Amino acid sequence: LQRYLDESQLFTVPDGWKEPAFTKEDNPKGLLEESSFATLFPKYREAYLKECWPLVQKALGDSHIKATLDLIEGSITVCTTKKTFDPYAVVRARDLIKLLARSVPFEQAVRILEDDMACDIIKIGTLVRTRERFVKRRQRLIGPKGSTLKALELLTNCYVMVQGNTVSALGPFNGLKEVRKVVLDTMKNIHPIYNIKTLMIKRELSKDPELRLQSWERFLPNFRHKNLTKRKEPKKKTTKKEYTPFPPQQPESQIDKELATGEFFLRESVKKRKKMEEIKVKQAEALTKRQEERNRAFIPPKEKPVMKKTNKAPSEAKIDIEAIKAKVRKAKTKKLGAPSVNPVPQTTPAYDKKKKNKG
Fold first, then answer.
1. Relative to the CA of 71, which of 47, 97, 120, 148 has its CA 20 to 30 Å away?
2. Which residue stretches belong to region Disordered (predicted)?
3. Enclosing domain of residue 274
């Protein structure tokens, strides 16, 4: 059963316990053989390494490790000396030059020489097929203005550096384990915010001493990866017919049809007469159809029924006929229109009267 348990449940370290440092008294005779490690660095790191190289030599000199910078070949070499007493110091020096070659600043990389520090270089270049998708997911790990990476660093107590096709992490062992999980999940298209949320809940639960020996599965969120296809289904779906080994039946020929109806055994004159009758029937049908289409234009359309407007006067208001008659008489007495400017006299002239009398 212990094989399936988490590593954190197998043993517990007391709070405040620290491993004693490895001193010269532990190994007074030193090392028998010389060990060395070398790594290459890119051209753009040459100027920075030249600048900080005295600090690197000073940091490694405390552990009696010799470091060599070769600018012609573009390599860094570390090796043990006769004074080196710590056999693991050269391994820490190897990790230091690896981090420096991976664009980690010296102020962070020098922390690897401490006892409770470790490093992990995660290769992410081959985890995603297409380059565009790889760049998107790598940017998702960094987050807007580096906010996602900063949150990951605060929760794991690790320094994380995303550079090219690798992710360099520096910190305690438990933190490195979480960083590797988050990075690999991000490359598998699982958003890092889900893992960050889980780490935040674990951090709060670890503060409670009663929950240390209990399972935390009921508190942790269960995020399911939904892979939804964006392919639209066609409107017309064609269904394949069932496969049959037998060929389809051949269509009947004209002679077969005549044999079935009995026309094949008739005389030529009878056949011609029958054909003419069929043609005449078809012509009569076409003629009646054409006549119906012509007569359709003379059929009058159906008119809508006229709706009679019935304005029923209200029973309460009675019309006063006498008052209306009085208004009409009064209007007749009044002279309508404006008076003329030069009124013409009504009397006729004298010469007109004489003409009338003579006549």
1. 120
2. 230-253, 291-314, 333-359
3. 256-292
Answer yes or no: is 238 within a domain: no
- Written as six digits, the tokens of 73 are 């070949």
- 256's tokens: 């077969």
Residue 153, class by beta-carbon neighbours within 10 Å (0-12 exposed, 13-18 middle, 19+ buried)? middle
- 234, 264, 292 — which closes off a domain? 292
With respect to residue 328, please indicate whether it lies within any of the assigned structural domains.
no
189: left (phi over 0), alpha (psi -120 to 50) or beta: left
The CATH number of the domain holding residue 38 is: 3.30.1370.10
Distance CA 127, CA 117 (A): 27
Go through 227-260 and write b for each residue having 16 or more CB atoms within 10 A of its CB, e for each that does not. Answer: eeeeeeeeeeeeeeeeeeeeeeeeeeeeeeeeee
In what helix (H) or strand (E) does residue 94 lie, and over which residues does it extend? helix 89-101
Find where tokens 């809508």 sit.
Answer: 304
Token pair, residue 356, equals 């009338």
Give the rounded distance of the alpha carbon of 119 from its chain centre.
Answer: 35
Amino acid at 218: R
Please give the model's pTM, rounded to 2 decimal places.
0.58
Of the residues 89, 115, 141, which one is the last residue of a structural domain? 115
Burial class (CB in 10 A: 0-12, 13-18, 19+), 204: exposed
Written as tens digits, the pLDDT of the chain (359 aa) is 444 455 555 566 677 778 788 888 888 888 888 999 999 999 999 999 999 999 999 999 988 999 999 999 999 999 999 999 888 999 999 999 999 999 999 999 999 998 889 999 999 999 999 999 999 999 999 999 999 999 999 999 999 999 989 999 999 999 999 999 999 999 998 889 989 999 998 888 888 888 877 888 888 887 776 666 667 777 888 888 888 888 888 898 988 888 888 888 888 888 888 889 999 999 999 999 999 999 988 888 888 887 765 555 555 456 778 888 888 888 877 655 545 545 444 444 444 444 445 54
- Domains in the chain, number: 2
Q: Please check whether residue 182 lies inside any domain of the structure.
A: no
